[in-house]
Amino acid sequence: xxxxxxxxxxxxxxxxxxxxxxxxxxxxxxxxxxxxxxxxxxxxxxxxxxxxxxxxxxxxxxxxxxxxxxxxxxxxxxxxxxxxxxxxxxxxxxxxxxxxxxxxxxxxxxxxxxxxxxxxxxxxxxxxxxxxxxxxxxxxxxxxxxxxxxxxxxxxxxxxxxxxxxxxxxxxxxxxxxxxxxxxxxxxxxxxxxxxxxxxxxxxxxxxxxxxxxxxxxxxxxxxxxxxxxxxxxxxxxxxxxxxxxxxxxxxxxxxxxxxxxxxxxxxxxxxxxxxxxxxxxxxxxxxxxxxxxxxxxxxxxxxxxxxxxxxxxxxxx
Length: 318
Fold this sequence. Notes:
Elements lengths: L5 E3 L4 E3 L10 H28 L6 H28 L5 E3 H34 L4 H4 L2 H19 L1 H7 L2 E3 L11 H5 L6 H16 L1 H17 L4 H34 L5 H26 L1 H20 L1
Antiparallel strand pairs: 1-4, 2-3
Helix pairs in contact: 1-2, 1-11, 2-3, 2-11, 3-5, 3-6, 3-9, 3-10, 9-10, 10-11, 11-12
């Protein structure tokens, strides 16, 4: 390949892609994206505010819920700039610096969410399998340490990615597959990507590959413990405490698992399916997670309802 067909950082730019077949109406797609982001922002900000301001909710389960809400806020915020730029204004071009920064934050918050889901599975494991030792195992200090470890793990693993991508040469045309920047999508455009691609695979395997495995093992032990409960009512009550978390895990990992199976089995599907599954993986969990937890956790739901009622009383007095 001639040198004229190669581009390097910082003069490098990428072209974003929307939904195949809907290029003629990009501004129409901005409305549902804005609605999803607003729902995510309102829902997760409410969870963060309620958990932080209510001392009675400073228990491990709710502190992990706080971490999940922060991860969702970060993920949806990282996705928003290029998506709005493309669908609202029709701007396909994004600079390499902006692209590398976006993919760092997208992957960091995505892995952070996966790590929090693993921590929440551990919380449910201890609560169901070792209930008497729960207060001594998951102290508030230990929960803070777990949160710090999650943040360090997510940031440190992805910090090298933008710098590795900057050192690459890219073959024209630099057309991405999505409306946002992802490391595998950018990496496949590099002319020589062997060892750098291997680091990306290591990051994916050690996080998104291992976390679901440990979550499944945790719930296998939980199920074994629940089945040992004599009364049916006791079993249902124990499983009900895990229902929200199981729903969130299924919503977060299923699109990624389906996409991995499609690629692994070499199934021929349209690009629209790939893009749709990616959207479901990144956009849907931040919207649904607050709803699922607020519906299932009466303590959080009660605090939100109480705050709304107090606000209405104040407004009526004025």
